[in-house]
Design a protein that fits this description.
Layout lengths: L13 H17 L7 H11 L5 E5 L2 H15 L4 E3 L2 H4 L12 E5 L6 H4 L2 H7 L2 E6 L5 H4 L3 E4 L15 H21 L3 H6 L4 H6 L3 H4 L8 E3 L4 H10 L6 E5 L5 E6 H8 L27 H11 L3 E5 L5 E6 H6 L4
Parallel strand pairs: 1-2, 1-3, 3-4, 4-5, 6-7
Antiparallel strand pairs: 7-8, 9-10
Helix pairs in contact: 1-8, 2-8, 3-8
């Protein structure tokens, strides 16, 4: 019996089996690259012009891949939901509107549960895109656009379990979602809006989201005494342990912290009656409110400081970031 095209010789060890699977799946994905063309671009245009949502459906392993593709689309700016074919036939088709685009996943293109959705989806007026390894299948012949996922042999030793086919489906779905990011000019701020929780959301938080501002930050005019500055710091809500010193135009000219107080106390208390200008940091490290909170932590580490004044484009203090704020927001 002749081996399937694209199938490697049978491995002799379990590690070689694993390596064979990875090579076959990688090859199946790489083989998709030259196949992308007009149909892929038509799908992009269809989704971009879509006035509704992208509905993704599939059964079995393809259904699991469909769920992931839908989740990726939704989290990167393309409204989407997964529709289980069985549930669709028992009322959930009511979730689909004529403004929607439906991606139907089936490697064989002959999955009964998916095929039976074609007619009712057509009646609803939705546009249909097939993602299949067999464009000439029932599914491929009855949809508006076909995205060919290739016909690489499965990496399963029996040639049965979906492996290369699901890898190709997932990769093609990712390619679609990432191309849509470019088309929508979707940026990190948009991404953060959809990921408020977890490590991803925290990594993309802006300084303005966690900084102390208003009555929770201390500012004193240049020429104030060190004692007056300390009194203002202690009277500030939350006792931030730092004060921004400003000139007559409201711009930052210095920064005074509890650390500066401790260092100067080693020489006595006489400095308290003198101007804070004499003991403040005259060239403090600052950060913009639009910078990432993670960058605030990086600056604190690099300069071995606990507080950062936040200034606008004109050098006017608009907030304060304390290491404790970064801890509370779980940035560190």
């Amino acid at each position: 019996m002749m081996p399937d095209a694209g199938r490697e010789p049978e491995p002799r060890s379990r590690l070689e089996r694993a390596r064979t699977v990875l090579r076959m799946e990688a090859r199946a994905i790489a083989d998709l690259v030259p196949t992308l063309g007009p149909d892929f671009e038509r799908t992009l245009d269809l989704v971009l012009a879509c006035g509704g949502r992208v509905v993704v459906t599939g059964i079995g392993k393809a259904g699991i891949i469909a769920t992931k593709i839908s989740a990726t689309l939704a989290s990167t700016g393309t409204p989407s939901f997964y529709l289980h074919p069985a549930d669709a036939c028992h009322g959930d088709l009511g979730r689909v509107r004529k403004e929607d685009v439906v991606l139907l996943l089936s490697n064989s293109g002959e999955s009964n549960e998916v095929i039976q959705l074609i007619a009712p989806l057509r009646k609803l007026g939705a546009r249909l895109v097939a993602m299949t390894g067999r464009p000439d299948s029932t599914l491929g012949r009855n949809t508006d656009i076909v995205l060919d996922c290739g016909r690489a042999p499965e990496a399963c030793p029996l040639g049965l379990a979906p492996t290369t086919s699901t890898a190709a489906l997932l990769a093609l779905g990712d390619a679609l979602a990432m191309a849509l990011i470019d088309e929508r000019a979707f940026d990190t701020e948009d991404y953060a809006r959809f990921h408020p929780g977890g490590a991803l959301g925290r990594r993309l938080m802006k300084v303005r989201e966690i900084m102390r501002q208003g009555d929770a930050m201390t500012t004193v005019p240049v020429g104030s005494t060190a004692r007056e500055t300390l009194i203002a710091m202690n009277a500030t809500r939350g006792r931030p342990g730092a004060a921004s010193v400003i000139d007559q135009d409201g711009r930052l000219v210095g920064f005074f912290t509890d650390g500066d107080l401790a260092r100067n106390l080693q020489s006595g208390v006489g400095f308290l009656e003198g101007p804070v200008d004499a003991v403040m940091i005259t060239d403090p490290t600052t950060i913009s409110p639009e910078a990432l909170a993670a960058d605030a932590w990086r600056l604190c580490r690099e300069h071995r400081i606990d507080q950062l004044p936040v200034v606008d484009a004109h050098g006017v203090p608009v907030g304060l970031v304390d290491v404790q704020d970064l801890l509370d927001a779980r940035i560190i």
